[in-house]
Amino acid sequence: MTDGKFLDIPKDFRKELIPVRQEQVLLSPHVLLDGDLSLEDITLVAGLDVAYSKDDKLACVSLVVVDFRTLEPVEEHFEYFQPSIPYIPSFLYYRESPGYHSVIKHLEEKPDLFLFDGNGIIHPYGIGLASQMGLELQQPTVGIAKKLLMGKYVDPLKKGGYSQIVFEEKVIGAAFQSADPPAKPIFLSQGHLINFNTMVYVIREFFQNQIFSTKLPIPLLLADKLAREKLGERE
DNA sequence: GCGACAG
DNA sequence: ATCTTGTCGC
C-alpha cells in the first residue's frame, strides 16, 4: 500500500512516483469535460501511437492526421526515442509523452481533435495520458484503450452500439462495439475539452460506411501501422 | 486475503 | 507493448 487509492505504486518506484502522483492530483481539476467542439467543426483528426522494441530500448512514436470527411490521411510523421521509464499502470503519460510532444512539433496544420492510444479520464485520478496531453496542448483530446483499466460496463449488444463505463456511480467513458461481437469493445474516454456525446459521435463516424472492418478508428489504425513499420526498420 | 492494473 | 501457431471466415 503506497498510494492510498486504487492502484499501488510498485515499491521500486515509490519514492520517485509519489510526487508524480501529487502532480496528477493537482492537475486533475483542470481537465474540462465540455467545451465548444461539435461535429460540424471537425475537419482534421490526429491519431497518435507508440511501438516498442522487444527489449524496450527503442520506441517509435507516430502521428497520422486524417480528413474527417474523406477519411484520407493528410499528414504523417514519426520519430524514434528511448523510453526513459518502464510501463507502470496509471503513469503511462510519463513514459510516452516525450515522444508525443516531439512528433507533434512536426505538425504543419493544427488538428481539431487528437486521439491517443490509452485513456483519458479512465484513470484512478481522472487524468490519463489523453487528458494530460490535452491540458498541455490546450486542445480537444480523446483516449481510446483496447483494455479496460477500471470501471464496469455491460456489453453493447451489436456493432455500432455503446454502453456507459461507470465507476463509483459516475460515467467515466463509453464501451464502443466497433467490431462484431464476440470481439471486445474499445474503451473511449474524454481527454480534455470535449463532451461525452461529441466524443461518442465522432468516434462512431469513423465506422460509418467503412470498407474495411477495423477495431480502431482510422487515425489510430494508421498510426499503429506506421509506428510498427518504422520500428521494424530498426530492429 | 488475493488479485486487479491503459501501453 | 511484444512474443507466438494454427485456425476461422470472407
3D architecture notes:
- The chain has 235 residues and is α+β, with helices and mostly antiparallel strands.
- The protein has a single domain (11-232), classed as archaeoglobus fulgidus dsm 4304 superfamily (archaeoglobus fulgidus dsm 4304 fold, 2-Layer Sandwich), CATH 3.30.2170.
- The chain has helices spanning 14-27, 92-104, 129-137, 196-205, 218-232; strands at 44-52, 59-67, 73-81, 113-117, 141-145, 162-167, 170-176, 186-192.
- It is globular and about 50 Å long.
- It binds 2 DNA strands through residues 6-8, 49-54, 56, 59, 87-90, 92, 95-96, 117-119, 122-124, 128-129, 143, 145-150, 187.
Assign the structural class, choosing from mainly alpha, mainly beta, alpha/beta, alpha+beta, or little secondary structure: alpha+beta
Helix content: 25-40%
Number of beta-strand segments:
8
What is the CATH homologous superfamily assignment?
archaeoglobus fulgidus dsm 4304 superfamily
